[in-house]
Amino acid sequence: MANFPVHTLESAPDDSKPALKGLAEAFGMLPNIAGAMAGSPKLINGLVGVFQQVHGGSFTEAQIQTLLLTNAVTNGSTWPVAFHSFLALKEGLSEADVQAIRARRLPQDPKLAALSHLARTLIDKRGRLDDQDVASFTAAGFDQALVLEVILVVAASTMTNYAGSVANPPLEELFKAYAWQA
């Protein structure tokens, strides 16, 4: 496998540095996946722009982490699974719900289960939802328009999932307790 560098704020291309600074401020550290993605200023800047939309959207942070963790598991990307397991717990998901998602099962919480199921279905069906898929989501109390916002979250996480699988950045010590294998 190719060896992709994990850039620091100092070693990153100049056009990647503002995005990395923002991520370092947001997380209190620079995640290795961001350092790896910084090798492409277009990718890291695109990621930051899309994630600003995700985190400024309609879903709670716990719901966003449910989607991001589900996407990482569905895409089989190990670094993001560890990272989003950590963040999901931090945002208040139960240990049981996090473990369920990591094991490719649905969370017990009905709304989180609907989000997780829709995200997995979108990925598995490559966006080709049918009426029943949408009906199951809205039956959990979500507005139909939020299906489109789930697509945004799936798109955002696809960038980190694919970059994580291609670049394979090392897992930070902070996230090693949440290491996962596809």
Distance between the termini: 17 Å
Q: What CATH architecture of the largest domain would you give?
A: Up-down Bundle
The number of helices is 9
User: What is the highest CATH level, the class of the largest domain?
Assistant: Mainly Alpha
Q: Can you write the helix and strand succession as a string?
A: HHHHHHHHH
How big a fraction of the residues is strand?
under 5%
Average predicted local confidence, pLDDT:
95
Number of strands: 0
Topology-level CATH name of the largest domain: AhpD-like
Cα-atom Rg, whole angstroms?
Answer: 16 Å
| Overall SS class | mainly alpha
Low-confidence stretches: none
| Estimated helix fraction | 55-70%
Oligomeric organization of the protein chains: single chain
Shape: globular
Q: State the fourth-level CATH superfamily of the largest domain.
A: AhpD-like
Number of structural domains: 2
Protein name: Carboxymuconolactone decarboxylase family protein
InterPro entries: AhpD-like
Organism: Trinickia violacea
Structure, described:
- This is Carboxymuconolactone decarboxylase family protein.
- The chain is mainly alpha-helical and 182 residues long.
- It folds into 2 domains: 14-55, no CATH class; 61-166, AhpD-like (Up-down Bundle), CATH 1.20.1290.10.
- Helices cover 63% and strands 0% of the residues.
- The chain has 9 helices and no strands.
- 40% of the residues are buried.
- The mean pLDDT is 95.
Please specify the SSE layout and strand pairing.
Layout: H1 17-27, H2 32-37, H3 41-55, H4 61-75, H5 78-90, H6 95-102, H7 110-124, H8 131-139, H9 146-167
